[in-house]
Amino acid sequence: MLLSFSRRRFAQLLGAATAALPFRGVDALAAAPGDAAVRPLPFPKGFLWGSATASYQVEGAAKEDGRGPSIWDTFSHTAGKTHNGDTGDVADDYYHRYRDDIRLMKDLGLTVCRFSVSWSRIFPDGTGSPNQKGVDFYKQMVDAMLEAGIKPYGTLYHWDLPQTLQDKGGWENRDTAQAFADYAGYVASRLSDRVKHFMTTNEIRSFVELGYREGIHAPGLRLSRAKVTQIAHHAVLGHGLAVQAIRAKAVRDTRVGLAENPTVTNPALETEEHIAAAHKAFREENAMYLSVIMEGRYTDLYLKQLGADAPKFTPEELRTIASPLDFLGINVYAPTYVRADAGERGYVMISPPSSFPKMASPWLTVGPESLYWAPKLIHDLWKVKEMYITENGASSDDVVATDGHVYDTDRVMYLRNYLMHLQRAVSQGVPVKGYFLWSLLDNFEWADGYSKRFGIVYVDFATQKRIPKLSSQFYAEVIRRNGLG
Ligand code: PNW
Question: In angstroms, what is the span from residue 38 Cα to ligand 1's centroid?
């Protein structure tokens, strides 16, 4: 008797039996055999999937073909500055192995790749005469990407300032902003026939604050608040001058943006009052970086709070800083949470409980909804028409299992959850056009040296052997389906 139930009747019974349960997941169970049990969450047609990387973290070949030293060579070779004294001298040896690594990208199905140019390969002294061998390396590397059907997105400054410029004060010296623009314009003049998207800087906040205030990144300084705000001003000015220089020197259809890591101010609860607080917080917490770049002014609260430590600037400089962009890239990792407040600011930041879940890097708390709120708040505030997630990814304590594979289930969990929230944003019309996973390969993770792994491909640094992790399979599947689930 029981066996002769129709499928419809069976579904009805299943529905009745589970009607009391507080969730609605049973619909999928009741579906006809052959229906997908998991509903796909699609991304728009043509959504771009890529990986991101940076010169000093992967290239190695630190002294080859005329490359000059950068502040990261100096810093990593100074005792006690990086984990285990690790340096980027060899890193992933990408300088010699890029053809193989681009093949890995192609196998994954990547359609775009974000890389960065080492300033001191192009101008070993920061300014002066260019080094043709440095230019040739990037031309050949980019051509290998194009041959693999991968569009290159180039970052001009991912923290490796030529040491000669640091010797003249680095970003403390306003001249560095102009030197950066000259270098950026030169690279655009050489590469824009094949690279259509340029980002000026990567994470101004990180290199200013970790390098010049906390002293934990190169150049390892701990300067006063007044000096740091002036450095931040020179850095955003360098970005603006570079935008103009790239436009002046590149071929006509070149698109210019930057990759910034805004403080992501998730609303404590998704209610009207907390969401309003999140908007205010986003603007204020990013006042000296993204807000001044988008608005051409420092917020009143920012200037008021700094008093005599506020940066010195001219109206002309503010106009340069806010040079119009073709796209905005954001790097999204750890969340912050804010709640509404009756005070002058209209919000307060909530300090995370010590139990907040983290990945392998102590700073990397897990807040998947950041990949919804970051692009959403930006779109609401500034009506940006083209955005990219220029970095998102996670460190985990990867181990090679006895069968030779790396089962990074925590990274897969992290990526799946962040991507679900990105899907939520794009399905509501937030104009994110692509996603660059950080990173393809395990690499030199700055002060953490080789102790923190962010790759979806494992690197054995002793042999340079590459092992795609479980997360590679996950990502390839997302790309193949252009969606989740
Ligand atoms: C970014 N934090 O850096 C960089 O752009 C990459 O070069 C880096 O490898 C990647 O994220 C992973 O760390 C960050 O302390 C470094 O909040 C530190 C922080 C954020 C971003």
Answer: 33
Residue identified by tokens 């590459």 is 466
The finding on whether 160 has its CB within 6 A of some atom of ligand 1 is: no
So what's the pLDDT on residue 7?
41
**Cβ of 111 less than 6 Å from ligand 1:** no
Tens of pLDDT, residue by residue over 331-375, are 999 999 999 999 999 999 999 999 999 999 999 999 999 999 999
Smallest CA separation from ligand 1 atom 15, residue: 363
Catalytic option among 209, 284, 391, 445 = 391
Q: Report residue 35's pLDDT band, with 50, 70 and 90 as the boundaries.
A: low
The answer to whether residue 477 is catalytic is no
Query: What tens digit of pLDDT does each residue of 381-435 get?
Result: 999 999 999 999 999 999 999 999 999 999 999 999 999 999 999 999 999 999 9
Is 369 catalytic? The answer is no
pLDDT at 36 (0 to 100):
52
pLDDT at 170: 98
> Residue 322: pLDDT above 80?
yes
Span from the CA of 203 to the centroid of ligand 1 (angstroms)? 8
Instruction: Tell me the pLDDT of the chain averaged across its residues.
Output: 94
Please state the pTM of the whole predicted model.
Answer: 0.93
